[in-house]
Amino acid sequence: MTPSDADYQRAVDLLIAGELVAIPTETVYGLGADAANPAAVVKIFAAKGRPADHPLIVHLAGHDAVDHWAEQVPAVAWELMETFWPGPLTLILKKQAWVPDAVTGGQDTVGLRVPGHPVALELLRRFARVKGEHAGIAAPSANRFGRISPTTAAHVAEELGDVVPLILDGGPCKVGIESTIIDCSRGEPVVLRPGHISPAHLEAVLGRQPQIETSQGAPRVSGSLEAHYAPSTPLRIVAGERLLDFINAQRHRGGQCAVISANQPPQAGMPHAWRLMPADPVGYAHDLYAALRDMDHAGVDLIVVEALPQGQEWAAVADRLRRAAAGAGQG
Ligand code: TXA
Ligand code: MG
Prior knowledge:
- There is one protein chain.
- α1 (5-16) packs across α6 (118-131).
- β7 and β8 form a beta hairpin.
- The strands form two sheets. Strands 1-2-6-3-5-4-7-8-9 form a nine-stranded mixed beta sheet, with helices on both faces. A four-stranded parallel beta sheet has the order 10-13-11-12, sandwiched between helices.
- By secondary structure, the chain is α/β, with parallel strands linked by helices.
- The protein has helices spanning 5-16, 38-48, 66-69, 75-84, 101-104, 118-131, 153-160, 199-206, 243-252, 281-296, 315-327, and strands at residues 21-23, 30-34, 57-60, 89-94, 109-113, 136-138, 180-183, 190-193, 211-212, 235-238, 257-261, 273-276, 302-306.
- The chain binds threonylcarbamoyladenylate (TXA) and magnesium ion.
- Threonylcarbamoyladenylate binds at residues 25, 27-28, 30, 54-57, 88, 90, 92, 104, 107, 109-111, 113, 115, 139-141, 178-179, 181, 192, 220-223.
């Protein structure tokens, strides 16, 4: 799944012209615009139906561009970049004065990330060759606001095909959930959004357990809104030992459910759609959004997700599922 030279050229031309391009990253697909062009960035918000005070992540081709966008970058941020970039880590840093408010939601910080996907990196490098070496692409996940993030080019087409002039196809996303976000702008690094890079990974670099922000509801991080990553079908999380009873009760009421679970169906011949998930958190995260999307299209009344195991390694997946349950059934 490699875009042709002509695809890259078209993508660069669109970005330079202030238009949108959907791009693959290793986490999820992004809806990209030239981050230094406020008029282009505004189109992202319009396409997604996203409130304008929600800041965007600026994607860069490499560490060299960081000082152009951020100031007072602390040593710990450089250590994190050296360890995890290119990769699924976003750092929140004090912004340079020139960085457009459209990107930062009017805050004095900016989110930066060097993505670990060859197509994203190639596009960023080609864009920088034309636009200037520090060029960045602002990109939120390429879904309508509050909906499930896309992990394939087909998902993007389904969400935004009518409003994005070009979707670069880089195949299915390896990680499958959004980047870990760490705020390094306020002294001690604080995890704002859990992701593939886990607290254990971070502890190995920081030498101590990272702080994890728990306050909910503030729009600083749009992922921190309760209702997010949500299917249109209502979704319930049900403990494994109650699952069979729950499904049977639904059935007696005439309701059809689809089940997402890391375990085999408890009895043969169950009439429901059953999506078997990998039993490890990395595999589960990889499949999560595609599973939610498939089950949302299954024509059922309810999506039932078997509760996850406890444990830090499941934190990122648990976070996405909790938000999916909070926002489901509203569309
Ligand atoms: O993996 C990802 O991070 C994907 C890919 C495309 O890179 N992007 C993504 O973007 O998930 P989005 O907009 O869906 O989520 C970005 C998060 C939002 O919750 C936003 O509020 C937060 O990053 N963010 C960006 N800049 C910020 C800032 N200056 N301060 C606090 N949060 C920020
Ligand atoms: Mg998003």
